[in-house]
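[agent] plan:
  1. take the single chain provided in the ticket
  2. run structure prediction with default settings
  3. attach structure tokens to the ticket
  4. add a short note for the reviewer (M.T.)
[agent] executing step 1
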Amino acid sequence: MEDKPIDVGRLGVIRCLIAPEPRTTLEGDQRRDREGNPLWITGLVVRQQERRRLEEIHVTTSGQPQGLTEGGEVKVTNLWARDWALEGRTGTTYRADSITPVTGSGGGSAPAAGPRGKSAGDS
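[agent] step 2 finished; step 3 output follows
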């Protein structure tokens, strides 16, 4: 399968749907890239220009995105997609170099999630 770059300029508004969480193995260990950097996964919602429909995508980054709030507008740098097929299942994986907050986007006020999706106040 080959990587397909995505022109984020054509996507319209991108917002953080689910704050960054560690991307983990089935055993619960945090996944790492080839250089050994920890991988994080962030849920984003995209509303394409001139369309009413929203698309939810989960984007993996090396290193934890900082300063994101659920509902806040974000900027995604070097987004690409790769289709996959495994044991009769298919899907698309999304990766990006970085996800950063858009200053003054007026997003939601939900706290950033910690490990395993818990906010700092959860026990």
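[agent] step 4 note for reviewer: The CA atoms of residues 26 and 115 lie 15 Å apart.
[agent] ticket updated
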